[in-house]
Design brief:
The chain is about 40% helix and about 15% strand. The chain has about 280 residues and is α/β, with parallel strands linked by helices. The strands form 4 sheets. An 8-stranded parallel barrel has the order 1-2-5-6-7-8-9-12, surrounded by 5 helices. It has a two-stranded antiparallel ribbon with strand order 3-4. Strands 10-11 form a two-stranded antiparallel sheet. Strand 6, helix 4 and strand 7 form a beta-alpha-beta unit. Helix 2 packs parallel to helix 3. About 5% of the residues have low confidence.
Amino acid sequence: MSSLNIFAFADEASGQIDKQIAAMQRNRLQGLEIRGVDGQSIADISMEKAREVRRKMDDAGLTVWSMGSPIGKIGIEDDFAAHLDKLRHVLELADVLGAENVRMFSFFVPEGKAADYRSKVIDQVGRMVQVAHGSGIALCHENEKDIYGDMAVRCHELLTTFPELCGIFDPANFIQCGQDTLEAWQLLKNRIKYLHIKDALKNGKVVPAGAGIGAVKQILDEYRAMGGFAVTIEPHLSVFDGLKDLEKAGNRTQIDEYCYESSDAAFDVACNALKALL
């Protein structure tokens, strides 16, 4: 199996970049899929801020693997020209940060109307691919609930239509759409660049990797056997900040089996869950 580089959405540990770095170092991760930093979306930070983040990451011996951008996470009828300008900015930021990927989506469409908007989605995704062409930065499509590419067959359609596009595979998101993850994996695996490590129960509740129905270990093992080398931990676990205030010394108040007393605690659980599967 390939060696595995483990990255994370460390903004789920803290919104502050310094604390994100501490969380990654504590869990011995290789770096960041950067999504939120010091109160801003990664798509909205300045070039000066990007250079500051790059210096801090370099000093910590960490890398920015991917831009966890919101590109494509708008309504299909929203202002697309302005969104293309945002993509251009994200690509410039990615260059400064040293990120080789930009995570993107394929637009929110009205429920049950995906077929009606197919042509417009294809046109707009194609224009995004054109903007990124020649940048050396890969556009990576993530399956997400309520977007055009929510189900595996439409993800496959996008990846087949645009050979330059890469795939991100998120098991929990597929579960939340009623998509069997192993069926999705068999259809998409040859076009998946990296995985989002996120699992869920049948009811859609996100749980630590391996605790849900996402077949995360099987997919992870097959991905690595095929030469896959990178994953991003996306905890999305429930946090109840007041939990510790309800507990007496030595006692544990059971609010929920997968509810944690702090964002740092939830982040560490997600990291340890992945490591237990390796």
